[in-house]
């Protein structure tokens, strides 16, 4: 059994996280429950930041907070000297409520609204990553009306397709994101903003996909972006100061996954950028990256209570838990794979195989198919590993199920980061019928 971060098995045979017994966490806070290992998140953040420092490269490491957003995680990012990548007014508002330094916030998104962009200007954020021509016009209008400067990056699609799941690959030419680097769109966008009085163009941004286990794709993307910046210097005497190579660094969900350590990704990027800076006689740009999943993914563990069981003779054994696709949509959406352990029997052999079903009214609500586990009984606590990214952040109230609580653990301490929703929370925005019954 593969354990992550500070996970251990104690003398009672229970899974512990951050020095805290997961079974006791389930008793205290209830289930379903997301548990985050803060020490592991800190170690990952420092792994990226310290590699840049060690190699003497000016950089920003921005937490891609769509992976998991809340006030407490933004405060942790601030403690670890991360920047922050937000993709909506809601994420920006949460960051401000957390006291995050707005000059270290970067705003992404392919359809930012006028009000969201105004909010970004009001908040004096550090950078807007521009995604399309419509957004350029909005930014010109807002900045000119306010006579307020804003730093921007142009997001481009470099035509690099990472080795990842088709649904989450974004760097290829056919993408809803960014200006195509190969059909003239990026050049046109550059010309529209390069001399604008209030828009300060820092450079280029790309994101080639997610759950990537090699460095070749990042190297090829860096090469393409550096060559484009070399063209702009030669033709227009414009030199970029920032190159943002996005995120997408993979983590281990199952034994089939082979992620690299943070420093390996960073060192590969730096080598390529340095090579082409020298070759094209460009000033070495500041390198920005945007890890999300690789910071919080395997730091998160979901705890569930096992309820019903069902045996389908000669086919499979089902166990049902008190959560499912309402708190982890990824298996249904992406066919994502996970591993699990019975947290209160973690020291026992895994001699049985079960399909872990959720409680949602959907036949596709299966968290893990054919999971090797200890003998399971109703009332056991099931721990599903590596649910820290895109679990809670994509959670829903489908079937009117409340969202789970979130707990942070570190050095034997634990605290609520997000309260469990109540039934009252679910109906708080509902309104009674007021229209008079009509005849049809």
Automatic annotation (TrEMBL):
Annotated substrate binding sites: 293, 330, 334, 362, 390
Superkingdom assignment: Bacteria
Residue intervals of the Orn/DAP/Arg decarboxylase 2 C-terminal domain: 34-388
Keyword Cell membrane: no
Matching InterPro entries: Ala_racemase/Decarboxylase_C, DAP_deCOOHase_LysA, De-COase2_C, De-COase2_N, Orn/DAP/Arg_de-COase, PLP-binding_barrel
Modified residues (N6-(pyridoxal phosphate)lysine): 66
Keyword Magnesium found: no
Positions of the catalytic residues: 361
GO terms under biological process: lysine biosynthetic process via diaminopimelate
Binding of pyridoxal 5'-phosphate, residues: 248, 290-293, 390
EC nos: 4.1.1.20
Catalytic activity entry: meso-2,6-diaminopimelate + H(+) = L-lysine + CO2
UniProt keyword annotations, A-Z: Amino-acid biosynthesis, Decarboxylase, Lyase, Lysine biosynthesis, Pyridoxal phosphate
Complex and partners: Homodimer.
PANTHER family for the chain: DIAMINOPIMELATE DECARBOXYLASE (PTHR43727), GROUP IV DECARBOXYLASE (PTHR43727:SF2)
Family (UniProt): Belongs to the Orn/Lys/Arg decarboxylase class-II family. LysA subfamily.
Protein function: Specifically catalyzes the decarboxylation of meso-diaminopimelate (meso-DAP) to L-lysine.
Protein name: Diaminopimelate decarboxylase
Organism placement in taxonomy: Bacteria, Bacillati, Bacillota, Bacilli, Bacillales
Gene designation: lysA
């Amino acid at each position: 059994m593969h354990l992550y971060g500070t996970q251990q098995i104690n003398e009672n045979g229970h899974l512990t996280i951050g020095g805290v017994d997961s079974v006791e966490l389930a008793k205290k806070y209830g289930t379903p429950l997301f548990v985050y290992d803060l020490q592991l998140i800190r170690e990952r953040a420092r792994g990226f930041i310290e590699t840049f420092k060690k190699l003497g490269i000016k950089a920003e490491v921005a937490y891609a907070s769509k992976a998991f957003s809340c006030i407490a995680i933004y405060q942790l990012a601030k403690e670890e000297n991360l920047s922050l990548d937000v993709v909506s007014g809601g994420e920006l508002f949460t960051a401000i409520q957390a006291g995050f330094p707005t000059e270290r916030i970067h705003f992404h998104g392919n359809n930012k609204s006028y009000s969201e962009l105004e909010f970004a200007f009001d908040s004096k954020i550090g950078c807007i990553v521009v995604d399309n021509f419509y957004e350029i016009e909005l930014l010109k209008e807002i900045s000119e009306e306010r006579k307020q400067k804003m730093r921007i990056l142009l997001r481009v699609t470099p035509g690099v397709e990472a080795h990842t799941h088709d649904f989450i690959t974004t760097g290829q030419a056919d993408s809803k994101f960014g200006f195509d680097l190969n059909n003239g769109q990026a050049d046109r966008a550059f010309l529209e903003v390069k001399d604008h009085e209030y828009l300060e163009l820092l450079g280029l941004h790309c994101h080639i996909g997610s759950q990537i286990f090699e460095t070749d794709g990042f190297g090829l993307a860096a090469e393409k972006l550096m060559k484009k910046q070399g063209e702009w210097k030669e033709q227009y005497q414009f030199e970029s100061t920032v190159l943002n190579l996005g995120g997408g660094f993979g983590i281990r969900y199952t034994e089939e996954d082979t992620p690299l350590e943070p420093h390996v990704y960073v060192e590969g990027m730096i080598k390529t950028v340095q090579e082409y800076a020298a070759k094209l006689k460009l000033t070495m740009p500041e390198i920005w990256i945007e890890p999300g999943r690789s910071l919080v993914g395997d730091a998160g563990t979901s705890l569930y209570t096992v309820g019903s069981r069902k045996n389908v003779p000669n086919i499979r054994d089902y166990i049902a838990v008190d959560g499912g696709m309402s708190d982890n949509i990824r298996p249904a959406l992406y066919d994502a794979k996970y591993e699990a352990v019975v947290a209160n029997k973690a020291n026992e052999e895994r001699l049985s195989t079960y399909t872990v079903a959720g409680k949602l009214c959907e036949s596709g609500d299966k968290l893990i198919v054919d999971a090797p586990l200890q003998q399971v009984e109703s009332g056991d606590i099931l721990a599903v590993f590596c649910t820290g990214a895109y679990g809670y952040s994509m959670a829903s109230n489908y079937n009117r199920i409340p969202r789970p609580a979130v707990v942070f653990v570190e050095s034997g301490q634990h605290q609520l980061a997000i309260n469990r929703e109540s039934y009252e929370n679910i109906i708080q925005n509902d309104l009674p019928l007021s229209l008079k019954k009509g005849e049809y």
